[in-house]
What we know:
Structural class: alpha+beta
Distance between the termini: 28 Å
Shape: globular
Helix content: 25-40%
Largest sheet: 14 strands, mixed
Amino acid sequence: MDVVVKRVSTKKDLKTFIRFNYELYKNNPYSVPDLYDDMLNTFNPKKNAAFEFCEATYFLAYKDNRVVGRVAAIINHRANETWGKKEVRFGWIDFIDDAEISAALLTTVEKWGKEKGMDTIVGPLGFTDMDGEGMLIDGFDQLGTMSTIYNYPYYSKHIEQLGYEKEVDWVEYKLTVPDKLPEKFIRVSELILKKYNLKIKKLKRREIKEKNYGQKIFSLINEAYAPLYGYSSMTQGQINSYIKMYLPLIDLRMVSLVENEQGELVAVGVSMPSLSVALQKAKGRIWPFGWYYLLKTLFVKKPKILDLLLIGVKPEYQGKGVNALLFYDLVPVFQQLGFRYGESNPELEVNTKVQSQWNAFESVQHKRRRAYKKQL
Length: 376
């Protein structure tokens, strides 16, 4: 039978769209499932603040009367305006190993994009940089993280056969937590503190709201990430959503802030225990027992791996070694909490400033992912 692609139009369709990824990867030991409830909110214009400047539609592919693929078609108007482009994004793409199916899905997004006046298709990308982005092209035998995409090796072959070319790559590193910080690292960090009149700030829970630190953190991220590929600055609605959604779950010992003598935030590092195994055990569901695995990981028995979620340095302080201060503060915390490894999460391969910070640690680049593009 031919492949039939249908637009997601009902709640039942959306449930099928979300759960297709879990069904395709349920026996894969490296894939980390998204939380179903999080995905419902992500795809809901009333719940996801990114819809202030994005539009999207979702498609399911059927063959022999069964679901065999999915894809989201997204236009981030804010990013297009920022970068002077007319791009439609494809995201949340999954399909069985059948070239007819991948072609049907992407052709559908291409057609939708053309109808909207776009001249290029790129992906996989989400609504914004806060969503998973980049197709895995190396590191298929490595456990994924909660903020990244895992896919089978055949995906990139299908994409390239359809005429898609490399747009940009991200690399990821596995970092070993040292038994102790090198003396040189400590010495340099203390010199930087003195030279620029900086201080390390440990955040208290009440300060997130009372002293507006949640706002300060995400405003800094907007500044630091502004030059990065495809970035669209977070709106106030998005910032409010992230503060409410994520900061209550963070162990504040694993957050490091650096301030200047005027009390302005100039650097931030946010890390947390890896939830990868907990999400696998939860099978992407909070209920009935998923909450147990997640809370246990966060608050009771931490794993040996941590995720470096956000690292940002104010532009005028970049290249001055200020990012070293974050690890000067955090590595002793990681040691105390029993972590052995850290996941850097994706970094643009051209972002040598970020990658150079790993020179002080034992590290290995173990994953690579790619965004593809094609002219319409």
